[in-house]
UniProtKB/TrEMBL annotation:
Pfam families listed in its UniProt record: Phosphorylase
Enzyme class (EC, first level): transferase
Species of provenance: Pararhodobacter oceanensis
GO cellular component term of the entry, any: cytoplasm
Reactions performed catalytically: [(1->4)-alpha-D-glucosyl](n) + phosphate = [(1->4)-alpha-D-glucosyl](n-1) + alpha-D-glucose 1-phosphate
UniProt cross-references to InterPro entries, sorted A to Z: Glycg_phsphrylas, Glyco_trans_35, Pyridoxal_P_attach_site
Family, as annotated: Belongs to the glycogen phosphorylase family.
Matching CDD domains: GT35_Glycogen_Phosphorylase
Keyword Glycosyltransferase set for record: yes
Enzyme Commission no: 2.4.1.1
Location relative to the cell: Cytoplasm
Keywords tagged on the record: Allosteric enzyme, Carbohydrate metabolism, Cytoplasm, Glycosyltransferase, Pyridoxal phosphate, Transferase
Gene Ontology terms, MF aspect: glycogen phosphorylase activity; pyridoxal phosphate binding
Name of this protein: Alpha-1,4 glucan phosphorylase
Length: 794
């Protein structure tokens, strides 16, 4: 493909300004300019997109269908421009039209159609599938409102407001009003011969919206197809004519609620009827679409597993099992057992959690009311499995509930965990019974991240240094970063590396100053913990250590402390009271510490609100230290940990999730390990006094907890954080107390390492050089081999 010149791009922008935005240059707003550039770039994506679709059609190739409730894609413009090799041309064209390129990019809203790791993983996978030429569709929901916007009240509590990314036109998508399916709910099931006829008593329309996903260098493009819900009869004219103007629009409003809002990952949302409807809505629409595409190319349904690989991203699309059986058996007359086996050969399931409260279960009564035929099929699937494995103990149905994990396992030919440790725990804990019956089924696929967004796009300075040192080509062959190692031995490279980090930090310091009005020392260590708030992720362990450190600095302010800027980012589910208490505490500790003149230059706490993908792209390249401090055995993988290591931050972390693999990759000497292992955590909990003993043996921890209880961070009110401190003193399921001293010691080792700045830089650069394996290209190649049996098309 010929690179487009800035002039041609300029003309394309002007054309879209005029004909798509209806503006001339003189009247064009920043929004108009951004939209015109988006549409001009989208035009460039269409040709490779068509080419890829034609190629996979002509090759009659097997395709991947990645079913996910969440795609946390963030902004798309900068990525698309970069993948097409048009960054310089676009910069020049936009500048020539009198606008600032950065401002134009920053005008794009962050598409937050996901909560966190699971949704961002799906987005990285889309990028890698397009880069590798793996024919694929992402299928999900076109939420009108993505993840809520977070702000902090004057008292430091989290406030939530509706996110509204679709208020403006979504410039990347193509609406497909002609690709729409009716999705039914409720109703009755009539037996008719061998099969059954399900007559739903209400239905909504699932309408397709396609976003092309362009890969690196524009060699391939796939489709992200999101379903929007609409009423089948949009408007009740009789109601309108009889004067009921609100009632006339009621069917439309009701139907649209299904794709109205993303659930904010809240275990209190478990068992909510609307959530089940969302899950069935997008899964059923996707399967209809998949079978329709298959039927255009092949009429022999036994060939389905040779053409179709369906990946279920957690159990959220688990209803795909029974629904595919229904489509094959009830609607296409396939034998029930053959239908089950055919469906299983198509389906695979990724598990992302072991937390019992996060494993989906649906009350049978609810399932029967919303999806009566599926409930019957689930019972038959369970009975068939029991009949084939008379010794089995596990059941899909238990205590009046449908266990979606077990259903997914039984209906999948492969089940995967997302890191080595997590996969072993999947085998030995949640799915132990099923694993013993099907020892070949569970496999590991360690997560990965796309280096295009998370290194090339987010960290242009480091990318330029890498290219200067080892040439280009690392962007889609990330293991080549190993070639940096000889250079790291030279002081010139280390100085250049340190300078990149310093510049990134200075940019971040400026942003923190402007956005939050907090002055930070850009030479201090930038110590970052960004992720959803959850007790198992232990942001409270971090803030307790900060409190203890603050105390010791105050007592001995002239000692040799490593100056730190402690940065937090992340949201708590609106109904998760304890997580919100931790946020409240962090904000108030920040208020108190940042006002202390004695410690001002040594310790600052910064917590910018509304952490999202765009903020991650800003923070990660500027980080010196990455906090990955979950209770061992609880974080399935983590992917933020990978982004930090790739960008030359050192990790302080537990042996949890992919930390284990990261530590092996970068070398134990370049990683600050602390805390109990997963086994030790389990053993520790055997002693009901583990937290009391840990507090008793640690002066520092005792004082930190007592300082909170004294009201120091709550305007003298000792009751404010009582729930939190009492939980630590009496319950502490996530072993914050038991790991505290070990964490403190590791942090002091971090301080010592920081004083030898050149060696710190060497360790940081080695983290970058040895992180190539963390590319999601590696992960996707492995899925293609081990699960999907698909060969790359390029
Ligand atoms: C379930 C029921 C009702 C409402 C919401 C949910 C729900 C929504 C989102 C449950 C879980 C999630 C998201 C889970 C998630 O993000 N898990 C993370 O997945 C990453 C990718 O594999 C891992 O790296 C993280 O360790 C894991 O926590």
């Amino acid at each position: 493909m010929l690179p487009m010149t800035a002039n041609a791009l300029r003309d394309a922008i002007l054309k879209h300004l005029e004909y798509s935005q209806g503006k001339d240059l003189a009247n064009a707003s920043l929004y108009d300019m951004r939209m015109a550039l988006t549409l001009a770039i989208r035009d460039k994506v269409v040709e490779p997109w068509f080419r890829a679709n034609r190629a996979s059609y002509q090759a009659q190739s097997k395709r991947v269908y990645y079913l996910s409730m969440e795609f946390l894609i963030g902004r798309l413009l900068e990525d698309a421009v970069m993948n097409l090799g048009l960054t310089e041309a676009a910069h020049e064209a936009v500048a020539g039209l009198g606008h600032n390129f950065r401002d134009v990019l920053d005008d794009e809203p962050d598409a937050a159609l996901g909560n966190g790791g699971l949704g961002r993983l799906a987005a990285c996978f889309l990028d890698s599938m397009s880069t590798l030429g793996c024919p694929a569709y992402g299928y999900g929901i076109r939420y009108e409102h993505g993840l809520f916007r977070q702000s902090f009240g004057p008292d430091g509590r989290q406030l939530e407001s509706a996110e509204d990314w679709l208020r403006q036109r979504h410039g990347w998508e193509f609406a497909r009003p002609d690709t729409a399916f009716q999705i039914g709910f409720g109703g009755i099931v009539a037996e008719s011969g061998r099969a059954a006829v399900w007559t739903p008593d209400n239905a909504v329309l699932a309408k397709a919206y396609d976003t092309p996903v362009i890969g690196w260098q524009g060699k391939w493009a796939n489709t992200l197809r999101l379903w929007g819900a609409e009423a089948i009869d949009a408007f009740d004219l009789d109601a309108f004519n009889s004067g009921d103007f609100t009632g006339a629009a009621a069917p439309e409003a009701l139907a649209r609620t299904i794709s109205r809002v993303l659930y904010p990952d809240d275990t209190t949302d478990q068992g909510k009827e609307l959530r089940l409807k969302q899950e069935f809505f997008f899964t059923a629409a996707s399967l209809r679409d998949i079978l329709r595409r298959f039927a255009r190319e092949c009429s022999d349904l036994s060939q389905l597993p040779n053409r179709v690989a369906i990946q279920m991203n957690d159990t959220h699309p688990a209803i795909a099992g029974p629904e595919l059986v229904r489509l094959l058996h009830d609607e296409r007359g396939m034998e029930f057992e053959t239908a089950v086996d055919t469906a299983r050969a198509c389906l695979a399931y990724t598990n992302h959690t072991l937390l019992p409260e996060a494993l989906e279960r649906w009350p049978e009564a609810l399932m029967t009311r919303v999806l009566p035929r599926h409930m019957q099929l689930i019972e038959r699937i369970d009975a068939l499995h029991a009949q084939r494995h008379p010794t089995r103990q596990a059941t899909i149905l238990e205590g009046g509930e449908v266990k979606m994990g077990e259903l997914s396992f039984v209906m999948a030919h492969k089940v995967n965990g997302v890191s080595a440790l997590h996969t072993e725990l999947v085998k030995s804990t949640v799915f132990n019974d099923l694993h013993r019956l099907h020892p070949e089924r569970i496999i590991n696929q360690t997560n990965g991240i796309t280096p295009r967004r998370w290194l090339k796009g987010a960290n242009p300075r480091l990318s330029a240094l890498i290219t200067d040192t080892i040439g280009s080509g690392w962007e889609d062959d990330l293991e080549r970063l190993r070639d940096l190692e000889p250079a790291i031995a030279t002081p010139e490279f280390r100085d250049a590396f340190a300078q990149v980090k310093a510049r990134n930090k200075s940019d971040l310091a400026q942003w923190i100053g402007q956005d939050m009005g907090i002055k930070v020392n850009p030479d201090a260590m930038f110590d970052v913990q960004i992720k959803r708030f959850h007790e198992y992720k232990r942001q409270h362990l971090n803030i307790l250590e900060i409190i203890a450190l603050w105390q010791e600095i105050r007592e001995n302010p002239t000692a040799n402390w490593a100056p730190r800027v402690k940065i937090f980012g992340g949201k708590a589910a609106p109904g998760y009271v304890m997580a919100k208490e931790i946020i409240h505490l962090i904000n108030n500790v920040a208020r108190v510490i940042n006002a202390d003149k004695l410690t001002r230059d040594l310790l600052t706490v910064v917590y910018p609100p509304n952490y999202n993908v765009t903020m991650a792209e800003r923070l990660i390249p500027a980080a010196d230290l990455s906090e990955q401090i979950s209770t061992a055995g609880k974080e399935a993988s983590g992917t933020g940990n990978m982004k930090f290591s790739l960008n030359g931050a050192l990790t302080i972390g537990t042996l949890d999730g992919a930390n284990v693999e990261i530590r092996e990759l970068v070398g134990a000497e370049n990683f600050f390990l602390f805390g109990m292992t997963a086994d030790e955590v389990v053993a520790c909990r055997q002693d009901p006094a583990h937290m009391a003993k840990a507090i008793a043996r640690s002066q520092r921890l005792t004082r930190a907890i007592e300082l909170i209880e004294s009201g120091t961070f709550s305007h003298g009110d000792p009751s404010t954080y009582r729930d939190l401190t009492q939980n630590l003193r009496t319950h502490d399921y996530f072993t914050v107390c038991a790991d505290f001293d070990s964490f403190w010691d590791a942090q002091r080792q971090v301080d010592q390492a920081w004083f030898d700045r050149d060696n710190w830089t060497r360790m940081a650069a080695l983290n970058t050089a040895r992180s190539g394996w963390l590319s999601s290209d590696r992960t996707i190649k492995s899925y293609m081999q081990d699960i999907w049996s698909i060969a790359p098309m390029i």
